[in-house]
Amino acid sequence: MVSETASHIPMKARPRFHANVWWLIASAFVACLALLPVAALLLEAVQGSSGVFMHLRDTVLATALPETLILLLGVGILAGLLGTASAWLVAAHDFPGRGILEWALLLPLAMPTYIMAYAYLDLLHPLGPVQGALRWLLGYSGPREFRLPDIRSMPGCILLLGFVLYPYVYIPVRAMFLTQAGNLLEAARLLGTSRRSLFLRVAVPMSRPAIAVGVSLTLMEALNDIGASEFLGVRTLTVSIYTTWVTKSDLPGAAQIALSMLVLVVALVALERWARRRQRYSLSAQKSRVLEPFRIKGAWGWVAFALGSLPILIGFAGPAIYLVTEAWKRYQFSGLSARFMSEAVNTVVFSSFATMVTLLLGLVVAYAMRIIPGRTSLWCFRLATVGYAAPGTVIAIGVLIALGGFDKFVDQTMRNWFGFSTGLLLIGSGAALIFAYSARFLTIAAGGIDAGLSRIPLTFDHAARTLGRPPGATFRHVHLPLSKAALAAAGLLVFVDCVKELPATLLLRPLNFETFSTQLYGEAARGTYEEASIAALAIVVIGILPVILLARVGKQRATPR
């Protein structure tokens, strides 16, 4: 009887063990897919001759690298100041309109950087409405008598990127101000600390981890930008990669510049970790108190509202009003063109398909880490989510090298065996573009799904196992229904990022294939801004969707329970 029971236990446990192992194998496969562009990039860069790199170092990197570093430094400082100050204003003060600013400060997230540059290039043109109104007010007759400094410059690029990217700092810092213990701030206030010192000596040091994370995300987005930098005359590494590949048709050279850019990304991440290596933050074991906002009354309250509205006005309201005006003029003149409808279909179809693929891959790596916790599943999760740290241009070059080599191998094989050519199967069909979207935004899907799964208690798994449910049934009937909200939120974020993605779309789109972002880029490059106003407005409207989601989540977290 004992031997019969002992032999019965492994037979029952074996199916569950094998089912879980298949999830782990699938997770490792997803990690390999995500690492494929980086591995192909490294291989292509190593195979390139050293002479090519020396030439690129002297002609391209000597200019692009310093300008990139200056841009990152300026954008990081400006976005850090704007995000931290805005977060402190709405979290620690109570004034008229504070509730509006809490969610409105997120609106610049809906404005892609290249649309921001596209709008301000027309608004601040010497013959544009802003400078025309200033000359009328000051009594000047033409641009030769008075004109503002040219927006096409490094300071102009820093200002525009800083005002559109500061929400990446505002979101985590405001959350830190709202959730950190109010006891320390009240103790400092009782000791006679002024409100200015309270902010500089207590609140900011406590929120340094959130500031560091927010600034790091800001720098990643600035490094990924290609449209704004090119429109504003700043030759960054991203712009250099694009021009080296598209203009000069030098793929090895573009791969070597992309590798240099990847090294810069790794250095930024390492610097952020090094800066926080000795910082430890903990809350008191006593009952913590929520930060009590300071009431600003009278005219000073409206001054605070005006100061808090300034980033919204520059980073969203001004460009949005311009886009609505120009789009309405264009619609009245010629309506919606057939080209616009085809671009809308291309944008929605490719972004939707890429979102479904990305959610499926993210679900695999997140679920494997839940059911088989350990170093293997954790490393698969980490390796599968490295794509978001790499700029879209780097991922696009890696995908182009990897899938282009596969297309070449298949074509040569079919020529030798069957005597006909298959052409560009993956590159020409748009599969490479979907692969690039998935590799780049897999972090968003996997992270969101993992957060949703972590809220499901493990007791549900134990109860399902006790009732005899196999792992597949537990996944379908327990985990999947309870994580639908996390899947929907992650899918929305991935979809919007796919719609806004410009560098990868420019490099990997099939021939005669246009989306909203590429059509906007082409019209802005030609200077015909009015032609792309409707497409730009459509991108902004789509980009508002995750802002609404973030505002609702932030409001729920800020509500006292």
List the helices and strands and how they pair.
Elements lengths: L1 H46 L2 H43 E2 L3 H7 L8 H11 L5 H10 L15 H12 L1 H13 L2 H9 L4 H12 L1 H17 L2 H5 L5 H10 L4 H25 L18 E2 L3 H36 L3 H34 L3 H10 L7 H27 L6 H5 L1 H24 L3 H9 L4 H12 L1 H17 L2 H6 L7 H11 L6 H26 L3
Parallel strand pairs: 1-2
Helix pairs in contact: 1-13, 1-15, 1-16, 1-17, 1-19, 2-6, 2-7, 2-10, 2-13, 4-14, 6-14, 7-10, 8-9, 10-13, 12-13, 13-17, 14-25, 15-16, 15-19, 15-22, 17-19, 19-22, 22-25, 24-25
| E-strand count | 2
* Number of distinct helices: 25
CATH superfamily of the largest domain: MetI-like
Which radius of gyration do the C-alpha atoms yield?
26 Å
Q: Mind describing the biggest β-sheet?
A: 2 strands, parallel
Mean pLDDT: 80
Order of strands across the widest beta sheet? 1-2
The CATH class assignment of the largest domain is Mainly Alpha
Structural description of this entry:
By secondary structure, the chain is mostly helical. The chain has 2 domains: 11-47 and 349-513, MetI-like (MetI-like fold, Orthogonal Bundle); 50-275 and 300-333, Orthogonal Bundle (MetI-like fold), CATH 1.10.3720. It is 78% helix and 1% strand. The protein has a two-stranded parallel sheet. The relative contact order is 0.13.
Summarize the structure.
With 561 residues, the protein is mostly helical.
Record keyword descriptors for this entry.
561 residues; MetI-like fold; two-stranded parallel sheet; mainly alpha; 78% helix; 2 strands; single chain
